[in-house]
Amino acid sequence: MRILAVASLILVAACQREAPAPAPANQSEGAEAPAGPVKGVDRSRKGRPAPDVTFNNPDGGEIDLADCKGVPTLVNLWASWCAPCVKELPTLDALAARHERDGDLGVIAVSQDSAPQGSVEAFLAKLKVKRLGAYHDPKMALSGGLGVEVMPTTVLYDAQGKEVWRYVGDLDWSGAEAAKLLAEGRVASKP
């Protein structure tokens, strides 16, 4: 029973990185620091450009988020060992399928696994995820550049490559909450 309890605690914390959050500039001395990222929408980085880091595209070549300018783009960071990540991948795949024909939203899910890219392809195939390519960042440069502490984290960029918001934790990307959030990207991208 004790082993089961310990295993449960490990699974709960499995998708969270241990990185102390810097204290806000306006935090008074002696005040308790925030607990860290909270699940949900975070608009504190709105307007920031995408980080200038490269990761692997599905063909194994390098890509940068600057290559995605011109259309709002949803960038999801996930890992195969993260249960909430795995849970939301099929909903991201469905979202990508809906927007693929219209070309009004790019959806990129970037694996943060350190294993070879072929294992990312196999993992997505096992989940029957067909629209999301095997984007891969084995050095976790993108999550580092974005300051991501919890996976999954999904960031919406407008057509100019500026952050609109980020969603910390998993979300049903085929649901009403996601539709409302994604509408913000379309509005933000209009000149």
UniProtKB/TrEMBL annotation:
<keyword id="KW-0732">Signal</keyword>
<dbReference type="Pfam" id="PF08534">
    <property type="entry name" value="Redoxin"/>
</dbReference>
<protein>
    <submittedName>
        <fullName>TlpA family protein disulfide reductase</fullName>
    </submittedName>
</protein>
<dbReference type="InterPro" id="IPR050553">
    <property type="entry name" value="Thioredoxin_ResA/DsbE_sf"/>
</dbReference>
<dbReference type="GO" id="GO:0030313">
    <property type="term" value="C:cell envelope"/>
</dbReference>
<dbReference type="InterPro" id="IPR013740">
    <property type="entry name" value="Redoxin"/>
</dbReference>
<feature type="signal peptide">
    <location>
        <begin position="1"/>
        <end position="19"/>
    </location>
</feature>
<keyword id="KW-0676">Redox-active center</keyword>
<dbReference type="InterPro" id="IPR017937">
    <property type="entry name" value="Thioredoxin_CS"/>
</dbReference>
<dbReference type="GO" id="GO:0015036">
    <property type="term" value="F:disulfide oxidoreductase activity"/>
</dbReference>
<dbReference type="InterPro" id="IPR036249">
    <property type="entry name" value="Thioredoxin-like_sf"/>
</dbReference>
<feature type="region of interest" description="Disordered">
    <location>
        <begin position="22"/>
        <end position="59"/>
    </location>
</feature>
<keyword id="KW-0201">Cytochrome c-type biogenesis</keyword>
<dbReference type="InterPro" id="IPR013766">
    <property type="entry name" value="Thioredoxin_domain"/>
</dbReference>
<dbReference type="GO" id="GO:0017004">
    <property type="term" value="P:cytochrome complex assembly"/>
</dbReference>
<feature type="domain" description="Thioredoxin">
    <location>
        <begin position="44"/>
        <end position="187"/>
    </location>
</feature>
